[in-house]
Amino acid sequence: MEGIIVKGVAGFYYVKTKNEIYQCKARGLFRKDGIVPFVGDQVSIRVLDDNEAIIYEIHPRKNQFTRPPISNVDCLVIVMAVKKPEPNLAMMDRFLVMAEFYRTEILICINKIDLTDDEGLQIYREIYDSIYPMVFVSGKTEQGIPLLKKYLRGRVSALAGPSGVGKSTLLNKMESRDLATVGEIGQKSQRGKHTTRHVELFDMEGGGMLFDTPGFTSFDVMDAKEGELAFLYPEMVPYIGECRYDNCRHLSEPDCRIRAAVEDGKIHKSRYGSYMDQIYEIQTMRRY
Ligand code: GDP
Ligand code: ZN
Hints:
Helix 2 crosses helix 7. The N and C termini lie far apart (48 Å). A 6-stranded mixed β-sheet has the order 10-9-8-11-13-12, with helices on both faces. By secondary structure, the protein is of the alpha/beta class. 23% of the residues lie in helices and 24% in strands. Residues 111-112, 114-115, 138-140, 163-169, 182-183, 185, 192, 194 line the site of guanosine-5'-diphosphate.
């Protein structure tokens, strides 16, 4: 029988098949081979009796993340807020680069639009509108939520973004069950607390599935190589290979087409700034 792992707790994996969820153990051989089943894995299971089943095969993964340990993500939804917390574009670009690196589709979701007028959304529109699909929502008033659901229908998606932007709140609105817990606002801080303890994969209202993960709040220096980074910025890709030097890193080299595109306003300065920061970070890491 075929299914998808929707939860893993204390050595058991919960596999959702067409009609049922089975509590499974992983085949002993996996551990010997160092294979760890991930939530999101497509697997083959064998039912031994009513209460027990084993996973005997994990199908090849489309992609996999290690923090959090999830696999087969179709779409990564990068969530940011218009306010509380204030937009952090450097962090936004790190999440975007991570999503590109793992080859997921990308949707930008700007939350808390109830806290601002149209002007507050302008910064996001100006920088990202021409690069990525974007939805503006409010987890509080539910404005834009139907559009978000529609976009994610039929896909397996995960929400990523800094803490406090409203990921758990949005999860609650999207899941067909009300299982994510939204933290209370602390007395001293404006931030919500994410209370999810383990990774789960939920059915979404209207079709599709959504990961509920405790992680994804930050992203370490990417494993991308220096020469690969520009490929993770879709708006830079048309210019790659057009510079004077083949190994141009687009920093201070002469006749750099990417820098020229920044000057011409074809690549946004903010995005180029993130690119530079990340290149320096990769270069610094490499020296140690
Ligand atoms: P997470 O850390 O990203 O999971 O964020 P939470 O979902 O815990 O939300 C953090 C805080 O923001 C909570 O106090 C929420 O009630 C609040 N919040 C979430 N969405 C919205 C929204 O659309 N508008 C407003 N005003 N507050 C929101
Ligand atoms: Zn260049």
